[in-house]
Every structure is written in structure tokens, then in C-alpha cells.
Amino acid sequence: MTRVTGERRAMITVTPGMRRLCASVLGMEAIVIGLFTPVAINTQGISPAVAVTVGIGLAVLCVLAAGMLKRPFAYVLGSVIQLLAIAAGFMVPTMFFLGLIFTALWITAIFVARRVEGVTSR
Predict the structure, then answer these.
(1) Using one digit for the tens of pLDDT, what is the confidence trace for 10-46?
(2) How many CB atoms within 10 Å of residue 97?
(3) Residue 83 burial by CB count (10 A; 0-12/13-18/19+): exposed, middle or buried?
(4) How far apart are CA 73 and CA 55, in angstroms?
(5) Using CA of residue 86, residue 90, residue 93, residue 94, what is the dihedral sign?
């Protein structure tokens, strides 16, 4: 049983560079998703209660996930946030595009940080 746990830890190794890059992505995404709220209300006619719940809720989730990036499960949470940001496109169609951009940045942040820190640790 400890062998499986050791293998799981090896699969998700959190490095300082990965934390910094991913926190940057989530921080910028929190701002964009927070600004989603007035756009949803004013241009799409979404009820303010729904728009605030979705927009501010996702922005707060981004900030919370950014604060927990020392733990591997936060990267799973960050990935779920990316899917939710894309799904927000059903309320404001521009979010499909912005969600895809942030998803690409999220994936890039993880892989670039791992690659760079793998090279520098040799």
C-alpha cells in the first residue's frame, strides 16, 4: 500500500516554480472571471444573483486554489476551475475563448515549470 502512495507522489511533484507560475495564472484568471459578473448582468441579461454567484464564486475559488498550491490536490482543483471557466461561456460566450486561453496557460505553466526545474536540478 505504501508503494502506491509513493508512486502517486512521484506523479505530482510540486516545485516552487510550478507554484509560482500556476498561482500567476490563477491570480490573473480570478480578475478576469470577477469582471465576468458585470458583463453577464449588463450585456447578457443574466440575473444578478446568478451572475454574482458564478463570477465571484469562481474568482474566490481561483484565489483559494492559488493559496493551496503547495498541495498536489490544488492542481486538480485548478484544472476543475479551468473547466468551469470554459463552462461559463454558456452565460457569456466570450468566456469560451477566455476559458480556453487560461486552460492553455494553466497546462503550459505546469509543463514548462516541470521542464525548466528538471533541467536546472541536474
Answers:
(1) 466 788 888 999 999 999 999 999 999 999 999 999 9
(2) 11
(3) exposed
(4) 23
(5) negative
- Block residue for cell numbers 463552462: 87
Cα 114 to Cα 112: distance, rounded to the nearest angstrom: 5
Return the pLDDT at 118: 65
What CA–CA distance (Å, rounded) separates 118 from 87? 34
Q: Within 10 A of 44 (CB to CB), how many other CB atoms are there? A: 13
| C-alpha distance from residue 39 to each of 7, 14, 29, 71 (Å) | 45, 35, 15, 33
Query: Model's pTM, two decimal places?
Result: 0.83
DSSP letters spanning 23-69: HHHHHHHHHHHHHHHHHHHHHH---HHHHHHHHHHHHHHHHHHHHTT
- Closest residue by Cα to residue 62 from 18, 23, 110: 23
User: How long a stretch of residues is the chain?
Assistant: 122
How far apart CA 11 and CA 14 sit, in angstroms, is 10
